[in-house]
Structures are given as structure tokens and as C-alpha cells.
Amino acid sequence: MAASTIPVPSSATTDNYVLISSVTPTAAASTLTFTGISGYRKLMLRTYRPGLSATSTVTLTFNGDTGSNYAYQSLSIVSTSGVNSVVLGTGANTGIPFASAASGGLEQNLIINDTNTTGVKTFSGFVIGGTAGNIVYPQFNGMYFASAAITTITYTVTTNTFLASGSVALYGVAA
User: Fold this and answer.
1) For the chain, what are the domain ranges?
2) Global pTM?
3) What is the pLDDT of residues 108-151, one digit of tens each?
4) Cβ atoms of 17 and 171 closer than 8 Å
5) Which of 14, 99, 143, 153 is the most exposed place for a label (fewest CB within 10 A)?
């Protein structure tokens, strides 16, 4: 039998992310909003040490939508004082639970696909964080059920406010 040959596409599509906007959170602010997003088929939200107070949690919403239009599943690997455990989570929410101060939130990344279409958008991401003796690595993916392209992303601290530190940046891949 002859060896099969896998055809090579004549032009490969690459994801060249470009910076759309970057913000340093200010103290006493509870939201960061990226508006006027258009012309991108894929978005990446990337945070670095976003400065969360001790009891803060973060939720993401798209287009100001706080309806039950978000579904996700998560897997967290937790190491507390040398004991490792795995935590599974699922949800149908009014936003994406993106991070908490308990996870340390040192670095967070979220990639959103098909952002310029009117169909379902898929997303995946991870958080790298923790404190001494408490390391958390949640990974998650899910869907946003919407009938419009994503034009706004809101990053909300649902308990307390940001501390004045770190950065939150939005990147995009042109349509």
C-alpha cells in the first residue's frame, strides 16, 4: 500500500493578535470596560496582577448582557500546604466568573472565538495564581449564547474594588 499524502494548504491562516487597548486599574474603581470593539474575529483578554483586594471576585460580561446567556465548565488544580486536589465546576451564569483574590490572580488569559458573528461564541482561558502555600490553577471553557457580535467587554470586581496596580489588555485578530 502506498503512503498517503496530507495536502498542504496554499496559504495558512495565522492568528496575529494586535493590541486594541491596555488599562491600569485605578483604586476605588469596580469596572473596566472595553467599548467600540469591531472588526475582530477573535479576542484575547489578558491581565497581569490586576490588583484585587482580599475578598474580591471578578466577573466578565459581553455587550452589557447580564442575562443567563453564559455556560462554562472549569477545572481547578489546588495545592494547599502540599496537598493537591482537583475541583470541577459548571454553571449557567449571568457572566463568566473569571478570577478571585483567593486564586491570587497573578495572570489571567481568556480567548473568545467568533466574536464578529451573530452565532454562539466559544471561550477558553486560565488563571495562574496563588499565595504562599495556596496555589490555584483554574482552567475553563464555555459558550456565550448571543445573537450579536461582541462590541463591549466589561471586567467587573463583584466584591470590593481594584487596587491601583497591574494591567488589563485586550488584543484582537482581524476578521
Assistant:
1) 18-174
2) 0.77
3) 788 899 999 888 999 988 777 665 555 666 778 888 988 899 99
4) yes
5) 14
